């Protein structure tokens, strides 16, 4: 079945107050075409071995996010697959499923750690891992609870504020509540649902992990306003709008084989922590970030050159800063791969510290990159004609004369500034600014997490060594003179 | 065969060091220098005893041991060995001493490794480099480098203010005679020889200033004019200033003879520039600066963490965020160093760390360190001032009271005070202020070094192509 065809599955996607068919609605056309194209790379002879590997079960090419790395080279194979997709989408599409598919791979590899929380976990995740891999399922996540009152602890929240099981049947559990932010949910197949909360032992009903098919009856997928454009000159918005949605579970029956953890606050906490430190999944996010930073640095460089602004020292300085962003993230990526290790299950994992560092840097880098792009393009972004002036238009001779740049013609310059504007000024662009700041979680908390999990012992030793040696190495004048004398002799 | 002379013996060899209007005759026992001299002696001793001996030295083809800064790297592993040697020394100075000779030695190693290529440009230079390199290596000579003209009126063009810049006055069969000044010669009073280079690209009109040579520290007519000393003699209350003041000096040359065998470039702007930007020399010396930066940032994180822990501040989310920012600085530079080494490039038979990662690390460093000090202030806050004037007072007449009020969460008054003295020395002392300035500017004017990253970026065409394909 085609990707688009697989979405005609009875799902309830709401946009602008009506239930829509995502396969035909213009808000989704460009994005679905992009995903269809990316998936087709798995069937394209020139790309399939970069994007994927042969499933041991189906013998068909499947995405490398499911590939289990046993060596440094295997890890690089995964990276190349991530980079292929993220470079084709300029890092602008972040939830193409290779992140969530990596999470599935991670849960599958560590499945035995979860058996204590739910006896069915091992069998269910194994089955799902193989299914998602071989059916090329597009997966996303919905972890957070709705923003209702963040100042209250979980146990004081309104009873419908946290997704919970309201009853069980032979087929599965019936759940009620809401989850956010489910990026890509309108056109994904499944969504991983857990909780970020540290739940108390009596919050059994809320303490679950599911992998929910997005077409279940009663599951309402409520989209934000669409930022997609059908104008050809909006090259990003016409192809890469990743829709975000809130999921409303209005009494949804989730079948047992998709209930991975039931009624275990500890298990849910463990599952959430696992996601936060899942090196295989974080690896993908850093590869994606690098593509995006390269793109925005490229756009900024081209814009500066197009109007001769790169003549100025302070402009060069700012673009230099963008290059330090790229180099930092790339270096951390290389470092994580080279300094990886084989774990007990014989899986070669990238080193988590450089990845964590890169992700935290990313929350500040992208906003700063936009800031620099604005400073350099300046008024140029709002002196574009409302739509492109074509060659047969009466204004064209004037357009060619007044809209040209230092070394580029009017069309080339216009194209550059239009991309720039989409990055800094379009709704899609603004959404990306927000996304990079927050996709890893509240940045202050993810920073704090890095502090908490960082191995500080070697630094403490260094400090203590220094302070202790201070006393030992204090010598009196006489002793010192003696040592000098001995030395000279 | 060259036999090294003991360091302390070499120090009082007639060098002209000016401090507070007088010539310092005995550096070894002068209060402004002796702490640092003692530190350097300690570092040199580490080369002779295990386990540090095998970390710091390698065996030369002559069968002697030499410091690893002299090793010509022929593999990635060699680069890693050099890193570890740099790290070993700088860690002994808590990350505070930056010019322990490895930087200037690495410049020489780079030229030495490329001597055949350079000999094509300047016949005879290979032999000179071999002699200089072997002498420095076998005699374990300490060195530093001075490249800049004095800061006089930078808004004026060179022709207008020629006076004062170091230049060739005359020459004869013995060598060149130079007069004028060079700055900043960090650590000059402590070393054995100085590498004098020309930082800026010069035109033919400035040929007299386009020179590169090695001058022995005791050369006749060479004056080292020190800034005010930031050294303290009180080790327990000023643990850094009492041992690690590197001293900065302006070099004034008063008709100094530089023998031909020590002159690499004389009155040749083109050759001076070629040596200045020579790849191996630049990359090997930059490599050391990044290792050094890591050691310093490690000390900063350790101090920040201890400040927070001993004040019970690690429970606050915003404090954890700030400490994490320090960790992220450190880990970013470590990542860049790793990448530079893993992605090392073979160049004329030797291995060089990858340029763009080093450049980025150095540029980030100019902004990281001032920010790190700011965070230390925010975390330490008034605690940095809440200590008795001297640590000895903890055991003095009101010691019992001090012990009751000056402790930390899990440390006693003595330990906490001792630690705060260290933190303050890094944050608030003259030595600390000098270090902030150093990190901002040691690699050059940061606006220009960032701009240079734009101008020379190896990936620029690839990025532009990306955008071209997009359209």
Automatic annotation (TrEMBL), chain A:
GO terms for molecular function: oxidoreductase activity, acting on the CH-CH group of donors. Keywords: FAD, Flavoprotein, Oxidoreductase. InterPro entries: Acyl-CoA_Oxase/DH_mid-dom_sf, AcylCo_DH-like_C, AcylCoA_DH/oxidase_NM_dom_sf, HpaB/PvcC/4-BUDH, HpaB/PvcC/4-BUDH_C, HpaB/PvcC/4-BUDH_N. The keyword Acetylation does not apply. It comes from the Bacteria. FAD binds at residues 147-150, 183, 442-445. It holds the Pfam family HpaB_N. Residues 3-261 form the HpaB/PvcC/4-BUDH N-terminal domain. Gene3D superfamilies: 4-hydroxybutyryl-coa dehydratase, domain 1 (1.10.3140.10), Butyryl-CoA Dehydrogenase, subunit A, domain 2 (2.40.110.10), Butyryl-CoA Dehydrogenase, subunit A, domain 3 (1.20.140.10). Residues 281-467 form the HpaB/PvcC/4-BUDH C-terminal domain. This is 4-hydroxyphenylacetate 3-hydroxylase. It comes from Lysinibacillus xylanilyticus.
From TrEMBL, chain B:
One of its GO terms (molecular function) is oxidoreductase activity, acting on the CH-CH group of donors. Coiled coil: none annotated. It comes from Lysinibacillus xylanilyticus. SUPFAM superfamilies: Acyl-CoA dehydrogenase C-terminal domain-like (SSF47203), Acyl-CoA dehydrogenase NM domain-like (SSF56645). The keyword Oxidoreductase applies. InterPro entries: Acyl-CoA_Oxase/DH_mid-dom_sf, AcylCo_DH-like_C, AcylCoA_DH/oxidase_NM_dom_sf, HpaB/PvcC/4-BUDH, HpaB/PvcC/4-BUDH_C, HpaB/PvcC/4-BUDH_N. Residues 6-265 form the HpaB/PvcC/4-BUDH N-terminal domain. Keywords: FAD, Flavoprotein, Oxidoreductase. FAD binds at residues 151-154, 186, 445-448. Residues 278-470 form the HpaB/PvcC/4-BUDH C-terminal domain. This is 4-hydroxyphenylacetate 3-hydroxylase. It holds the Pfam family HpaB.
